[in-house]
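TA notes, week 10

Several of you asked for a full example with nothing omitted. So below is the full record: structure tokens for the whole chain, then the designed sequence directly under it. When grading your own attempts, check the secondary structure regions first.
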């Protein structure tokens, strides 16, 4: 009997976002440069020799741990794990072959992470398989893969940066997520208007439309599902298993429309910061999220050394796309920039 995941938050994460695979990626790059004809076989042997070696955590690890810990609130000694869906499900999606992906599977077992579903796709395009798993959020270090998923409108997706030092200190008992507003939770019309006509034009429009909900952005459905999950969990004035924050450059008079929009969606975020152009990093360091989603390279670059950050790609048809992350000096897997066909078990994902 198939499991019904309709009420489950499903997150797919690449192997390179969950663990630090920099060493093996760099080794493959060297092999491709020095001995391209034998690189595939040599790398396969290299990975087999090291498949039992431990892996350091990646930028997405604390988030995944915090997400999976939410399942502890619905555990029952009589629960049939084969038939009953959890609150959160995590899927590993890797461009490695199954054979060279054993090190990742061993690392999952060693760290006792409750991940049972995986896809090793040997360098194939990622987007179709993300759709097959009915994913709500896809996290990757690969810009190309993130763009394909964003363009296909499959789910929310983001590019993770390198792990900041204090990621290791993040507790995973409470899940904390921070979202930017325009072009993330909300559509990109406000962002476009601001860039094209300036702040006054943006504020004038928001004042005139303050009672009209903003159109949904790429992360709206994820927020709604996360909010519905939050409602199924115990909560008190002092503590709740999930805390959600809106951290936006909006300020009065554009704040009112944002709050009313979330109300229209049935979402009640725990915190909202309308910063009006102030740097977001200070607030984010205090909130200490497991992930911060933003479409702005400037905000990501400012915060990335202190908290895990995730850059939200624009759809390729958006006017915002041309000057987006594709031209930014953000961290990504080195294999993202190899224009040739990747080897069938490339670790880049």
């Amino acid at each position: 009997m198939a499991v019904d995941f309709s009420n489950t938050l499903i997150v797919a994460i690449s192997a390179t976002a969950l663990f630090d695979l920099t060493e093996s990626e760099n080794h493959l790059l060297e092999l491709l440069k020095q001995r391209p004809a034998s690189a595939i076989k040599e790398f396969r042997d290299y990975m087999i020799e090291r498949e039992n070696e431990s892996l350091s955590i990646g930028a997405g690890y604390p988030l995944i741990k915090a997400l999976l810990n939410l399942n502890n609130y619905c555990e029952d000694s009589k629960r049939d794990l084969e038939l009953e869906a959890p609150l959160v499900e995590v899927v590993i999606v890797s461009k490695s072959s199954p054979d060279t992906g054993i090190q990742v599977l061993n690392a999952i077992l060693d760290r006792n992470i409750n991940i049972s579903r995986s896809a090793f796709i040997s360098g194939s395009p990622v987007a179709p398989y993300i759709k097959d798993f009915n994913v709500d959020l896809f996290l990757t270090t690969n810009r190309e893969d993130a763009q394909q998923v964003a363009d296909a409108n499959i789910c929310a997706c983001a590019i993770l940066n390198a792990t900041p030092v204090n990621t290791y200190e993040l507790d995973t008992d409470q899940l904390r997520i921070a979202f930017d507003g325009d072009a993330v939770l909300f559509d990109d019309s406000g962002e476009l208007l601001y860039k094209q006509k300036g702040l006054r034009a943006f504020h004038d429009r928001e004042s005139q439309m303050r009672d009209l909900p903003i159109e949904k952005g790429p992360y709206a459905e994820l927020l709604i599902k996360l909010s519905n999950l939050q409602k199924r969990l115990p909560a008190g004035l002092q503590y709740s298993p999930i805390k959600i924050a809106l951290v936006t450059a909006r300020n009065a008079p554009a704040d009112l429309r944002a709050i009313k929009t979330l109300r229209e969606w049935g979402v009640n975020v725990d915190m909202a910061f309308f910063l009006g152009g102030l740097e977001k990093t200070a607030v984010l360091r205090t909130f200490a999220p497991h992930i911060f989603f933003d479409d702005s390279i400037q905000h990501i670059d400012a915060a990335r050394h202190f908290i895990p950050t995730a850059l939200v790609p624009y759809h390729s048809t958006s006017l915002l796309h041309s000057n987006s992350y594709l031209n930014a000096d953000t961290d990504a897997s080195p294999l993202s920039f190899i224009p040739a066909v990747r080897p069938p078990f490339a670790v880049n994902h």
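The beta strands are 9-14, 88-94, 117-120, 137-140, 156-160, 175-179, 242-248, 271-274, 291-294, 309-311. Use that as a sanity check on your answer.
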